[in-house]
Specification:
Pfam families: Methyltransf_7. This protein is an alpha/beta fold. Helix content is about 40%, strand content about 15%.
Length: about 375
């Protein structure tokens, strides 16, 4: 099954070949629109550190491996890897041990802008060649670990068996491996007519998305259970919802299912996009409830749950002047474009994509006060260890 864009054909099933956050360093790039994710990640550091305290330390001569899954192309992943390595180093030092060599693997889909990410990496410490790890860690602003990029879907295997001590993944697991096929089938009751997201959709549509999420997360857990070292741990964060009703997607619903949806309707009403074409575009995101997530982890049985909670992250909008409606509108449009702009560009082409996000900015500007008050993200936060 495929959908036709402006001279671009995107296979729905092979979404992973082109899904990515918007690369580069432009105004709508992920690198310049991930401040909210950084703020949310910092507010959860105490939960991450509690997970790291559970990791079983190996002899210092055994290298310690960290993997960030869904790393994207901004500086947040580099910050988190640095936090993890410094915390583990502190644990070794408190026990009076030498520190091991560290490896950090940055993993995302092959379409990710790894070039921009690697340009943000600090230089490798000169002390890492022949110097002690303590000297390396003391090098101001330098990198104390060996880095590598690992392209591929985290819903399948990425690493050798028993090779990773810590897995970290933030703000990624709500992205599905594909839009469910039934949602794209006009003959199906799950066909998402008139919408581009499942917020407010019918029960058949949302159940198709929920089933896809269950399949994907189960595949993720199976793969990580093979790759995680004995005594290793995982820290996972994804968009979540507080409602038991999956048609209420919370913050994700407000981001993709209100003004963004209305902007698509504008294009249809203006004759720029046919309604059928709009109907066959769907944002492949599912924000699970705590129960959704827990059921899948327990059914897999490979991991013990150390902690599982809903965490209030706050607004995805970072603005300097909250009273400036135009800035709020621009922030909403850039935030939305940074995470789904690549999909939109591929589907309707750059020119119509510009029109769409201009319409979104205009609508968001007109509802700036409401957006600042209501647009809040909740996250599912999971700390898991090998069972």
């Amino acid at each position: 099954m495929s959908v036709q864009g402006d001279n671009v054909v995107v296979s729905v099933i092979k979404l992973e070949r082109m899904l990515s956050m918007k690369g580069g360093k432009g105004e709508a790039s992920y690198a310049n629109n991930s401040q909210a994710q950084a703020r949310h990640a910092r507010s959860m550091l105490h939960l991450l550190e509690a997970t790291l305290d559970r990791v079983q330390l190996e002899p210092p001569e055994v290298p310690f491996a960290v993997a960030d899954l869904g790393c994207s192309c901004g500086g947040n992943t580099i910050y988190i890897v640095d936090v993890i390595i410094k915390h583990i180093t502190k644990r070794y030092e408190e026990l009076g041990y030498e520190t091991p060599e560290f490896s950090a693997f940055f993993s995302d889909l092959p379409s990710n802008d790894f070039n921009t990410l690697f340009q943000l990496l600090p230089p490798l410490s000169t002390n890492i060649n022949g110097g002690s790890m303590e000297e390396c860690l003391a090098s101001n602003g330098d990198r104390s670990y060996f880095a590598a990029g690992v392209p591929g879907s985290f819903y399948r295997r990425l690493f050798p068996t028993r090779s990773i001590n810590v897995f970290h993944s933030a703000f990624s697991l709500h992205w599905l491996s594909q839009v469910p096929e039934s949602v794209m089938d006009k003959r199906s009751t799950a066909y998402n007519r008139g919408r581009v997201f499942i917020h407010g959709a019918n029960e058949s549509t949302t159940m198709a998305y929920k089933k896809q999420f269950q399949t994907d997360l189960a595949g993720f857990l199976r793969s990580r259970s093979r790759e995680l070292k004995k005594g290793g741990s995982m820290f996972l964060v994804c968009l979540g919802r507080t409602s038991v009703d999956p048609t209420d997607q919370g913050g994700a619903g407000l981001l993709f299912g209100t003004h963004f949806q209305d902007a698509w309707n504008d294009l249809v009403e203006e004759g720029l996009v046919e309604s059928e074409k709009r109907d066959s575009f769907n944002i492949p995101v599912y924000a699970p409830s705590l129960q959704d997530f827990k059921e899948i982890v327990e059914a897999d049985a490979s991991f013990a749950i150390n902690n599982l909670e809903v965490f209030r992250g706050g607004s995805p909008l970072v603005v300097n002047q909250p009273d400036d409606a135009a800035e709020v509108g621009r922030a909403l449009a850039n935030s939305c474009r940074s995470v789904c702009g690549v999909l939109v560009d591929a589907y309707i082409g750059d020119r119509l994509s510009d029109v769409l996000f201009n319409r979104l900015e205009r609508r968001a500007t007109n509802h700036a006060k409401e957006l600042l008050e209501q647009l809040q993200f909740f996250h599912i936060v999971a700390s898991l260890s090998s069972a």
